[in-house]
Amino acid sequence: MEEVKISDVTMKALGGQLSFKEKIELSKLLDRLGVSVIGLEGIENAKVDALRIKSIAAAVRESVVAVPVAHTREGVDAVWAALRGAKRPRLQVVTPTSTVQMEYLCHRKPDAMLALIREIVAYCREQCADVEFVADDATRAEPEYLRGAVAAAVRAGATTVTVCDTAGAMLPREFAAFFEKLYEDVPALQDVSVGVACSDGLAMADACAMTAVLRGAREVKASAYPSDGVSLPNIAKVLAAKGEGFGVRTGVRTVELGRITGQIARMFEAGKGALYDGLGGEAEGVTLSQHDDKAAVLQSVAKLGYELSDEDGEAVWTAFRRIARRKEEIGARELDAIVASVAMQVPTTYVVKSYVINTGSGITAMAHLKLEKSGKEIEGVALGDGPIDAAFLALEQVTGRHCEMDDFQIRTVTEGHEAMGETVVRLRSNGKLYPGRGISTDIVGASIHAYVNALNKIAYEEDSV
Prior knowledge:
The protein is of the alpha/beta class. The chain contains 16 helices and 18 strands. It folds into three domains: about 1-275, TIM Barrel (Alpha-Beta Barrel); about 285-340; about 350-465, Double Stranded RNA Binding Domain (2-Layer Sandwich), CATH 3.30.160.270. Helix content is about 45%, strand content about 25%. α7 (about 145-155) links the parallel β6 and β7. Residues about 270-285 have low confidence and may be disordered.
């Protein structure tokens, strides 16, 4: 019985609604669910996105982790440097195949696109044994060009070829005819795994995907949370109920399907994803400007979950006015950073003295931290799912304090090779939120300092009671 791989694209479709921490948690849930492939967003912001990919790659145990590359060798190198630590890495080369998209998105003619496909797929294959070529908007491509693009990708080393009905305008019967014609035109497809991605323009995505499976497709891109595409719960249930009849199965654990997709839904609908949209978003309803008064600003701070004293409220208001003079709008992320920077400032209980992080391909991330408390050095060592997780677990060990991580954000604050990274950590202890902020050219170091900054506030308040 052949396996139909489910390639989850939740993060690629809806990742903007999730925080850094939530993306790692989502990847763990999908891995536990048994999806064959977890698709991630590519690299736009070099430091932040590379850290996201590295952290997820370290957290995923069984699923393939797939990341799209930019159409340059440097773009491939950047993704591979972040992804190579995954147990099962995959590089994706996504190119438009319809004439309109080729010229509009890539500003290339068909011949130039074919040359690009050959070059980038071949270079990806030099780095990674698993390379996927994704023919975007394939159902609207000129048949001759699509045939040439797919054949070129296979000859260059692609191990999976995915064709996309990006417009979502086909009925199942039309999609079946499209698939049959593609197999007829490109015999080389018999030697690779063929995948399918369908948009839901006519509410036919699930039906078209199943039609493709019946015609030989062995990988389906689907989303665990509703999006404009194939539904993972639906396709998994159909394959579980009917797959045996036509000789296929899926690795998705259908017994856990309802529970895990329910957790994912709550993450999107009621979790911090409703507050932040990841590395650049705003809290719902929190958009302030220099025209807002002190009451409106403090009300927004309360909406973020902070309980401030009158003194801290005044400090936040002063900092807000200073920033608002040079920034047109201030949203949740900026407001959170203001609170972390100027409010709840206390004497330091813990001081970071040094840290060593070991991570890489095939090994579990390890963190060794030394802190100073009351003039004495204390140290701890911990293993974790990625360098930041290991560092935070080591901090828990060395301080003896376990706090709930309410949120964790990363962003760059300067440009260039030595860009400064800023992290904001929100810890919850005894029902109260404590923010911490760290800045460094080393994102892991910034994260450690942000965590310790928040921890000092907790220690000062709770130990003085």
